[in-house]
Design goal:
With 80 residues, the protein is α+β, with helices and mostly antiparallel strands. The protein has a single domain, classed as 2-Layer Sandwich (Alpha-Beta Plaits). Helix content is 25%, strand content 39%. It contains two helices and four strands. Strands 2-3-1-4 form a four-stranded antiparallel β-sheet, with helices on one face. A hairpin with a 6-residue loop joins strand 2 (29-34) and strand 3 (41-47). The longest helix is centred in the N-terminal third of the chain and has 11 residues, at 15-25. Residues 6-77 form the Transcription regulator AsnC/Lrp ligand binding domain. InterPro entries: Dimeric_a/b-barrel (IPR011008), Tscrpt_reg_AsnC/Lrp_C (IPR019887). This is Lrp/AsnC ligand binding domain-containing protein.
């Protein structure tokens, strides 16, 4: 399993709609939060080891209505 975090810049007034769409339509999502700063949302996803991160982000996330830009981070290790 691979863990990625994706930050979303949304079109004005669309952040809540994008968050709802992520939760309802993207089964790989774990959590989504609203944020302040350059991006409106950050979401955590778990992908299968053989799943292509680039294709997942460009074909499943960037095409959602209201998404203006994304920034992807790959996580290597979780500390507890």
């Amino acid at each position: 399993m691979k863990t990625i975090f994706v930050q979303f810049k949304c079109r004005p007034g669309m952040a809540y709609q994008v968050a709802d769409e992520l939760v309802l339509e993207v089964q790989e999502i774990s959590e989504v939060f609203s944020t302040s700063g350059h991006y409106d949302l950050i979401a955590k996803f778990y992908l299968a080891d053989d799943q292509d991160i680039g294709r997942f982000v460009t074909e499943r996330l960037q095409v959602l209505e209201g998404v203006a830009d994304t920034f992807t981070l790959v996580a290597f290790k979780a500390f507890t």
